[in-house]
């Protein structure tokens, strides 16, 4: 950052650090011990789609990489589009294999970044649920290099459980780099991995 940038209040964006995702297994243990939320075995990556053969090939490479890693029937990787036109990749692992799921999410992010599609990456999330059926996601903001909790109210339409989100933030402050700007805690309604 230059002198003029400092005077004008401009700052450089945080460089994404995909290795931050590897803190999620310890955060999952903290979340389970402190709030009773267990991993669902579902995680997803959201990115802006790009037209063209290179991007289509990259999507196929991602599918082949993650599908080759599975020993169960069916496709463990699903692609879908949301109402805003963003593409979501849903990955599955056994609920007790958070490290395996994190490895899958990291591999997807890395392939997209190395393929020149890093600017299209938006976020990754890991899903959790408690015994009462409440959902919670830990969302990694790619461009900020930070996490935040997202907790939709069950059956509440587009309402969030702000108390639960703040509780999760307090619990996970030592495990994850939490996004300090609450205005950047974007809702991810209906995101694959939350259900």
Question: Layout of SSEs?
Answer:
Blueprint (H helix, E strand, L loop, with lengths): L2 H6 L15 H12 L2 E11 L4 H16 L9 E4 L4 E7 L5 H20 L3 E9 L5 E7 L4 E5 L11 H11 L23
Antiparallel strand pairs: 1-3, 1-4, 2-3, 4-5, 5-6
Helix pairs in contact: 2-5, 3-4
Plain-language structure description:
- By secondary structure, the chain is α+β, with helices and mostly antiparallel strands.
- The protein has a single domain, classed as 2-Layer Sandwich (Alpha-Beta Plaits), CATH 3.30.70.
- It is 33% helix and 22% strand.
- It is built from 5 helices and 6 strands; from the N terminus they run H-H-E-H-E-E-H-E-E-E-H.
- It has helices spanning 3-8, 24-35, 53-68, 98-117, 162-172; strands spanning 38-48, 78-81, 86-92, 121-129, 135-141, 146-150.
- Strands 2-3-1-4-5-6 form a 6-stranded antiparallel β-sheet.
- Strand 5 and strand 6 form a beta hairpin.
- The longest helix has 20 residues, at 98-117.
Radius of gyration, in Å, reads: 17 Å
Spatial order of the strands forming the largest sheet: 2-3-1-4-5-6
CATH architecture: 2-Layer Sandwich
Instruction: Write down the overall mean pLDDT.
Output: 86
Number of strands: 6
- Percent in helix: 25-40%
Strand content: 15-25%
Q: Please work out how many helical segments DSSP would assign.
A: 5
The CATH class designation is: Alpha Beta
Number of domains: 1
- Uncertain residue ranges: none
How would a crystallographer describe the biggest sheet? 6 strands, antiparallel
Indicate the structural class.
alpha+beta
CATH topology: Alpha-Beta Plaits
Shape: globular
SSE succession: HHEHEEHEEEH
**Distance, first to last CA:** 42 Å
